[in-house]
Amino acid sequence: METNIVCFGEMLWDVLPTGKQPGGAPMNVAVHLKNLGHNPTMVSRIGRDDLGEELLDFVTQKGLSTHLIQQGETHLTGVVKANVSDKNEVTYKIVHPVAWDYIQSNEALEAAVAHSDVLVYGSLAARSATSAETLFRLLKKASFKVFDVNLRAPYYDSELIKALLIEANMVKMNLQELDVIASWYGLGGDEELAVVRLAELFDIQTICITKGENGAMLWTKGQFYQSAGFQVEVKDTIGSGDSFLAALLTCLLQGKKPTESLQFACAMGSLVATYRGATPFVTVSEIQSFLTPHLI
């Protein structure tokens, strides 16, 4: 049975020295979910401008539905200036305010989330009051909520992240984000202890910590699982974490074992880093071929 997944938040253009490319973590997750055989729904807002039309064309070509992507006259389509001078640690200058700061709640949107199996959301789309209000309204209607933390300074604070954590059933963050959140709540310096305490504090079922080239750690049902990751020739890391989440969700929703799920997700993230851009088409068979020599 097909899983009904809604991805909420920013869709935008990453402006790189080599030109612009479509981006935004929720949209990247949605595209990778589509590539992995799901039929996700993207919820966002773009301007009624040329950049917005180009984004609509992009998601249409990727096979995503556009019926819950709003268009507005007042604010321009989102743009982010990405600094890729360090290919392993991309930094971003995010224009504000833009169209995705004004995602409006409506009956169609609320119905879509109420009938979905999973809602994927991040912290960046909650930086402005309108989209934040819409998101929290949708969270009350969602059955299973996946929080992709994705901290982007200066667009977060401890109160916002706390409110988003309270709603989450599953959380994915990187090590640096764990350090920030652990410092707010005095969760201790040990990674595993911090994860367990965070899960207890916010009643979270599953927490995944990504570690870049060093793989990832998954805590679920009271146990830890580790993957050391894979060494690859990195072109850029844009979208790697988003593809990782799409792959991890895919496996967990299929009922695969946590170790297998984590390994598959790490392989996906590593493969995406060997391409330029956030949303290369990586097939399940390509991931399995990549994994084969590592499973012997």
Number of strands: 13
Question: How many helix segments?
Answer: 10
**What is the ordering of alpha helices and beta strands?**
EEEHEHEEEHEHEHEHHEEEHHH
Uncertain residue ranges: none
Query: CATH homologous superfamily?
Result: Ribokinase
Question: Can you tell me the CATH architecture?
Answer: 3-Layer(aba) Sandwich
Radius of gyration from CA coordinates: 18 Å
Main sheet overview: 9 strands, mixed
User: What is the end-to-end distance?
Assistant: 32 Å
- The tally of structural domains comes to 1
Residue share in helix: 25-40%
CATH class: Alpha Beta
Strand content: 15-25%
Spatial order of the strands forming the largest sheet = 5-4-1-8-9-10-11-12-13
Short description:
This protein has 296 residues and is of the alpha/beta class.
Give a description of the structure.
The chain has a single domain (5-291), classed as Ribokinase (UDP-N-acetylmuramoyl-L-alanine:D-glutamate ligase), CATH 3.40.1190.20. Helix content is 40%, strand content 22%. The chain is built from ten helices and 13 strands. Strands 5-4-1-8-9-10-11-12-13 form a nine-stranded mixed beta sheet, with helices on both faces. Strand 11 (206-210) and strand 12 (216-220) form a beta hairpin.
